[in-house]
């Protein structure tokens, strides 16, 4: 009886060791993936910062004004004047479209009386 108990205990220890071995490698794999994702996020943040800086550089008012002057013949761009702006209440919004009722139903008769109201 003792030998069966020793064999079962040995098999349980081997099974737990195998499980711990697999969990260790799964954990290390997850940690490696997490580290890679963190690196990717840092790279994306750095790229975004560069793109924002480039956008700010390209949208300098002096540069855009010079481009508008150079390309005036083709584009005809002029600066905004205060009289070109309007108020929201001056905007003519279209009237809402009416629903077309094509399948009309003829209704006649009376409604049935509710219980307890007679």
Automatic annotation (TrEMBL):
<protein>
    <submittedName>
        <fullName>Cell division protein FtsL</fullName>
    </submittedName>
</protein>
<keyword id="KW-0132">Cell division</keyword>
<dbReference type="GO" id="GO:0051301">
    <property type="term" value="P:cell division"/>
</dbReference>
<keyword id="KW-0131">Cell cycle</keyword>
